[in-house]
Every structure is written in structure tokens, then in C-alpha cells.
Amino acid sequence: MQSSRSTRNAPGHAGKPLYTPFRGMFGESESARNFRKVALRFDRKPYRPPDSDPTIWKIENERLDHVKRIYDAMIRPDAAKDNPKSNAMRRWVEDPFYDSALVEAYAHRILDCLLAQAKEGFRGWKHDDYTQDERKGEVEDTEVSCEERLSNIIRALEEEKTICEDVMNSACQIRMFVNAPKAYAGRKLNNRVGNSKRKRGRDP
Asked: Disordered: where is this region (predicted)?
């Protein structure tokens, strides 16, 4: 009974809704989609002015070469550091789980997100921006060129197959990862170490 009373008295559970009534602001899906793309930037800018980074155009002009690098990093088995019994290890190292054409298609998407990041800045929720989190952030993620960011992305995909899982399942996760590849990979490492310590603590 006590928990029921707490729920009834909690803010937002009774009375007026916290949000405005439906206003029909968007006449069709395209205008709603365009609004989302702009609104989720929260007025962010690229970390470096695009016209000061010639590696952006270099990568664009060599697109297929770099898509291949991303694809090869995702499917590379020998550099993986994930926990041996993880789903990521099973799907990327032990037994193929995804259709190869789909993996290649997602490699294109990762490169698209990288180029958008370099030209326009991060698009996503504020709580998903690792560069603004003192605990998770890595300074390097805000200082590198597009080419250097791509190198960090490739290394992370080679070593952390849980990241390969993330990018195959969520566009939001791709943008988070591309925005801060060093910090994102660091979180995966910390989670893996923490899980291993907890497992050792449970073992007799």
C-alpha cells in the first residue's frame, strides 16, 4: 500500500500533463523529420571548422576505400577483446550472424555519419553526448581531424565487437559512437573489466 500511495502522489502522475496538448505542428512526415534533424543538434557546431579540415574532402573522394576499411574492421576477428562468452564474440568471431551485404551497408552508414559529424556537428540528445560528460569524455574526441576520427573508429570496431553490435542495431548509437569513438570504446572497456571483476567475486 505504501508504494501505491507514493506513486499516486508523485509529480506528473495526477492532474494536468507536463507537456502541451497536441498541436498538429507538422502536416506530413517530411517536415517532422526535418524538424527532428535540426532540433536534435541543439545549436551544436562541428568541433573543428570544416573548411579547416582538408581530410573531410579527402575521405569523401576515396569513399569506397574507407567503407572497406570500416567493413574490414567490423569483421576482423583476431583483434577482438570482448568477453569470450559474449553475444558479440559469438556473432563476430565464432559464427557469422549478420548477412555480409548488411554489414557492408552499415559500413556505408557509419561513414555517412562520420562525414555529417565533421561538417555539421553531433546530432543527438544531450545525455548521449559523451564529449560533454566529465566522467566519460575524452579530450581527443573534440580535437581530431576527420581522418584521425576515422582511425579511432576503425580501431574501436576491431577491438570492441559490442560496438559492432550497437551500430548494427541503432542509428542513435552510430551517431554517439562516431561523435566520441575514444570515449565510447573506453566505456566498453570499463564495462568489460567491471563485469569480469563481478564474475570473479561471485566465483567460489
From this structure: 1-21
